[in-house]
Design brief:
The longest helix has 18 residues. By secondary structure, the chain is of the alpha/beta class. The chain contains 11 helices and 10 strands. It has a single domain, classed as Phosphoenolpyruvate-binding domains (TIM Barrel, Alpha-Beta Barrel), CATH 3.20.20. Strand 3, helix 5 and strand 4 form a beta-alpha-beta unit. The strands form 2 sheets. An 8-stranded parallel β-barrel has the order 1-2-3-4-5-6-7-8, surrounded by 7 helices. It has a two-stranded antiparallel sheet with strand order 9-10. It starts with 5 loop residues before the first helix and ends with a strand. Helix 6 packs parallel to helix 8 and helix 8 packs parallel to helix 9. Helix content is 39%, strand content 14%. Its cofactor is Mg(2+). Homodecamer; pentamer of dimers.
């Protein structure tokens, strides 16, 4: 079982095989998704919303991204692990961007980093790539720009913004990105960009014509059944399953039926037939 690399992903695009990507924030989910066949695990700054309970991804810090990246890497054997660069970790200067990208690789153990933005970040991307750190771009609905966009709204619906997104995508490839996430754009535009680029384009809310798809793991697992934007499909209803399991546990604790005999330990006692021996043999009841 060979590990997935950025070169593997390029070969999948060239062969017309879809790339499967999902977010992960800890070792347990990373192991499960890896065993299920994920090609890419994204340690997303979405951790700020689905794990930490924030209204946006903006409060997430570099230290937190390093911590979660390290956990995901420990649980992964095959998938390629990408770490998100959080808000203000690459916007201030090129030097700071390279330093923070290096932290995700050295301290977090990821195989590449992802950052949001178009042509204006081409130099940043180029410098990070020059430091031998692969970069995945992110265009369209970019959550770190939520205030600038005026909310989480679909991008590229008019001719001018669509043309800019195409130009941005070309610029990111030329700057050295090995792949691009395209989020919240019309499927027709996503198809144009996917066909125009030689690097893999991973879609989320961008239709079926991208080279692959990514979803937030908590969304696809149905851990929050009340959150279901148009592009999300629940492949399970684990939120309800978790509540049912926890409710059953609480009921048994309150009724005194848990723990029962099968889930309890006893004081060790001598095996009767061995009692006269100098060396006692003990048996623990099942």
């Amino acid at each position: 079982m060979k590990p997935v690399t950025i070169h593997t992903l390029k070969k999948l695009k060239d062969a017309g095989q879809k790339i499967c990507m999902v977010t992960a924030y800890d070792a347990t989910f990373a192991r499960l998704f890896d065993e299920a066949g994920a090609d890419v695990l994204l340690v997303g700054d979405s951790v700020g919303m689905v794990v930490q309970g924030h209204e946006s991804t903006l409060p997430v810090t570099m230290d937190q991204m390093v911590y979660h990246s390290r956990a995901v890497v420990r649980g992964t054997k095959r998938a390629h692990v990408v770490g998100d660069m959080p808000f203000m970790s690459y916007q201030n200067s090129v030097e700071e961007a390279v330093r923070n990208a290096g932290r995700l690789v050295v301290e977090g153990g990821v195989g590449s980093v992802k950052l949001e933005g178009g042509q204006e970040f081409a130099e940043v991307i180029s410098r990070i790539v020059r430091a031998s750190i692969p970069v995945m771009g992110h265009l369209g609905l970019t959550p770190q720009s939520v205030h600038k966009m005026g909310g989480y709204v679909v991008q590229g619906r008019d001719e001018d913004t669509a043309r800019k997104l195409v130009a941005d995508a070309v610029a990111l490839e030329q700057a050295g990105c090995y792949s691009i996430v395209l989020e919240g754009v019309p499927m027709e535009l996503a198809r144009t960009i996917t066909e125009k680029l030689s690097i893999p384009v991973i879609g989320i809310g961008a239709g079926k014509h991208c080279d692959g798809q990514v979803l937030v793991s908590y969304d696809l697992l149905g851990l929050n059944p009340h959150f279901k934007p148009k592009f999300v499909k629940h492949y399970a209803t684990l939120g309800e399953s978790v509540k049912e399991a926890a409710g059953s546990y609480f009921d048994e604790v309150r009724s005194g039926s848990f723990p029962d005999e099968a889930h309890s330990f006893h004081t060790m006692r001598l095996v009767p037939e061995q009692r006269e021996e100098k060396t006692a043999v003990y048996s623990v009841p099942v």
